[in-house]
Design a protein that fits this description.
The protein is mostly beta strands. It has a domain of about 110 residues: lipopolysaccharide transport protein A fold (Sandwich). The protein is about 0% helix and about 55% strand. The chain contains no helices and 14 strands. A 6-stranded antiparallel barrel has the order 2-3-6-7-5-4.
């Protein structure tokens, strides 16, 4: 006769690294007092509780994770970010975007192309230590990384390799 129960606590598999929530084809709006702050589209979302305390956003079939941030004063679209995946570390106020990251700053007209992006709201800083390409109008700038405040108002490309001007 076979039995499916065990009194050995070691025999019970550890599920702490498994997502406890999964959302498919998500469209999320976040607002404050009726003012839209953020729209997020993600083909897949995995939410992990402690000890991991993170949320993972994944693309599916070429459909990227997309975030759109709106100006708190006038409600206009300010910044959009698209990436293959993103991770929000809930306890640390850090969000990372990975793979084919494109940031569009509608205030300045800049479009930034990156491999990854880290947003640390505790430090009021957005940055990447990997190659970056920034386009503003007919100007293209490349560098080894970038850093900015989280409003993208003071963007600096690190180890800038020059500015290329071209005609479309």
């Amino acid at each position: 006769m076979l039995s499916g129960c065990s009194s050995n606590i070691q025999a019970i598999p550890d599920r702490s690294d498994s997502a406890n929530q999964e959302v498919v084809d998500a469209h999320v709006h976040r607002s404050d007092e009726g003012h839209l702050q953020l729209e997020l589209d993600s083909p897949l979302i995995y939410k992990y509780d402690r000890p991991l305390a993170k949320t993972v956003y994944r693309s599916v079939g070429g459909e990227q994770v997309k975030m759109r941030f709106f100006d708190e004063n006038d409600g206009h679209l300010k910044i959009s970010i698209a990436a293959d995946s993103a991770i929000s570390f809930d306890d640390r106020n850090i969000m990372e975007a990975h793979g084919n990251v494109v940031v569009v700053d509608f205030s300045s007209g800049d479009t930034i192309y990156l491999l990854d992006l880290i947003w640390n709201s505790n430090e009021d800083r957005i940055y990447s230590d990997n190659p970056v390409r920034a386009r503003n109008g007919n100007r293209l700038t490349e560098g080894d990384g970038f850093v900015s405040d989280e409003r993208m108002e003071n963007l600096q490309i690190t180890h800038q390799r020059g500015v290329i001007e071209f005609n479309d």
